[in-house]
Amino acid sequence: MGRLREGSVAVVTGAGRGIGREIALTFAKEGSDVVLAARSEAALAETAGMIGPLGRRALVVPTDISDAEQVGRLGERALAEFGRVDTLVANSGVGGPVAPMWEIQPDDWDETFAVNVRGTYLCCRAFLPGMVERGSGSVVIIGSMTGKRPLPNRTPYSASKLALVGLARSLALDTGPHGVRGNVVSPGPVEGERIRWVVENLAKAKGITEEEAEAELVAAAPLGRFVPPGDIANAALFLASDEAVSIIGEDMNVS
């Protein structure tokens, strides 16, 4: 597993809970100060409280990443506090509506893409110029195996997550010549609060029990279990580290 340079700075979106919190804590343990972004200031404050004892600094910036002005302020505050950003972990995302595609309302479809795709673009737009100017940096985008192994009634989510793979591959062509790398981590079903929501909706879509739905998800994984959030954090850490300097435009499955 890669180690970050001491005193490096990472921005982690969706850092108030779940995978995002685990990533923020892992980066702090490995020597990085962390800028924490999400909609809930209270949740971010909890994460920041866990980072302090690790000896690193945490900056809390409540942000709706689908809002260009708020993302712009996130970038300004990060640079004002730390002077640079070495890694962007674009983790924020929403599950989107759960229904057959023809029953989904356009506004609900648009909201899913506004957060999952537009939000990632806005964050890249805010932090890439500094990385390009310095000739180094890493963007780690948290996608999902659902983009490649879809679940029923999840069309907007699946489409938005697969879009992130195309985004990262195209981004690599733009930023590679400047020494800046972008990659995707695609988790399978991850232990935690959100998987219960996925199981519940999968059961409804297929007319089966939640126990049967959970067994179906687990059966799709060769290891026969859900993925611990720490495994996603370790993958993000590796891609951000100097040990991955020749990895760019890739989609790493942690499933």
Structure characterization notes:
Helices cover 49% and strands 16% of the residues. The model has no long low-confidence stretch (mean pLDDT 94). With 255 residues, it is α/β, with parallel strands linked by helices.
Within the largest sheet, what's the order of strands?
A: 3-2-1-4-5-6-7
The count of helical stretches stands at 8
Radius of gyration: 18 Å
Determine the strand fraction and express it as a percent band: 15-25%
Helix content: 40-55%
Low-confidence spans: pLDDT under 50, at least 5 residues? none
| Assembly classification | single chain
State the major sheet: 7 strands, parallel
Rounded mean pLDDT is 94
Structural class: alpha/beta
Please trace the helix and strand order, writing H or E for each element.
EHEHEHEHEHEHHHE
How far the N terminus sits from the C terminus, by CA atoms, comes to 17 Å
